[in-house]
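User: For my dataset I need records formatted as: sequence, then structure tokens, nothing else. Please produce one.
Assistant:
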Amino acid sequence: MKTRFPAIIFSFLVILSLTTCVIPTTKETYLKNFERFVKDVEKNGEKFTISDWRWANQRFSKYSGEWYENFQDDLKMEEKIQVTGLKTRYIVAKGNSKFGRFMNKEMGKDLEKFKDDVKEYMEKDFPKDIQEISRGAREIGDSAKKVIEEVKKEVQKKN
């Protein structure tokens, strides 16, 4: 049985790749492929490795981002609700898997660090940067005012 496990995983990944890697060209294809992708993740997510989850997360980002935006204006309200449901089901399936929980935890650490970095910047450097931007804007404004005055004088001389 041990020798068949890698073959089963490989077969699953090939099937998953074939069923979900096609870029949808219609909203119907988008909805059908997104549904199939989420069902595959729900069914097999517990068996995913970290690299499987990375791939699935990239695919999910396509479905919930770029591809959604391509069809967003064409989707009826029920279909938008369906997409929201698919997003929720994916997140739940990911959260229910061991590697999914690990990935969420690691991403959470990164987000916490990012939040701390932004907070530190806002407290320490942001006020100075705003002052510099304001000073630069005033200088640009003063220069523009001088140029306009010079242009105005030149126009008055010609008239």
